[in-house]
């Protein structure tokens, strides 16, 4: 419930009489409107018009026809956290695919594959006589780029 109206009332003297400084507030049930629809995705209980306080919707992505797949980027669970307020913005359904990482004078140690999709993690090492500059482990991010950036192997 949410308090609607003046929170604090004062007992005031008015001539020979006393009265409250205003009308008492009301407690109204908290409701949230339907969350935002997302392209290529859906959420649970989408048939409802309103949601009660602390009620949860869970987003998921629809299957993608052809090559690749949609990945949910952002929070999958949204909670009704106030009057017409959700706990976070809705997520996105994106096709995320990173390019094959090439490391001159180095090689992949783990995470081998032909395609690298969202959250794919790979690990590098440098060939003998070279040292690694940057992170040895990188992850395919939501924007289809490696993070942190692909390291370098420097002659030592």
UniProtKB/TrEMBL annotation:
The keyword Repeat applies. Coiled coil: none annotated. InterPro entries: Compl-Cell_Adhes-Reg (IPR050350), Sushi/SCR/CCP_sf (IPR035976), Sushi_SCR_CCP_dom (IPR000436). Signal peptide: none annotated. It holds the Pfam family Sushi. Disulfide bonds join 126-153. Residues 25-95, 96-155 form the Sushi domain. Keywords: Disulfide bond, Glycoprotein, Repeat, Signal, Sushi. It comes from the Eukaryota. The keyword Disulfide bond applies. This is Sushi domain-containing protein. It comes from Myotis lucifugus (Little brown bat). The lineage of its organism: Eukaryota, Metazoa, Chordata, Craniata, Vertebrata.
């Amino acid at each position: 419930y949410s308090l609607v109206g003046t929170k604090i009332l004062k007992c005031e003297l008015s001539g020979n009489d006393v009265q409250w400084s205003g009308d008492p507030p009301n407690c109204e049930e908290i409701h949230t409107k339907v969350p935002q629809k997302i392209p290529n995705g859906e959420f649970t209980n989408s048939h409802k018009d309103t949601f009660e306080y602390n009620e949860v919707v869970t987003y998921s992505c629809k299957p993608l026809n052809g090559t690749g797949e949609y990945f949910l980027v952002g929070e999958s669970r949204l909670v009704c956290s106030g009057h017409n307020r959700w706990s976070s913005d809705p997520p996105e359904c994106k096709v995320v695919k990173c390019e094959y990482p090439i490391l001159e004078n180095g090689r992949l140690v783990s995470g081998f594959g032909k395609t690298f999709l969202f959250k794919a993690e790979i690990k590098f090492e440098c060939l003998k006589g070279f040292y690694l500059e940057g992170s040895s482990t990188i992850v395919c991010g939501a924007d289809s780029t490696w993070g942190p950036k692909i390291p370098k192997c420097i002659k030592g």
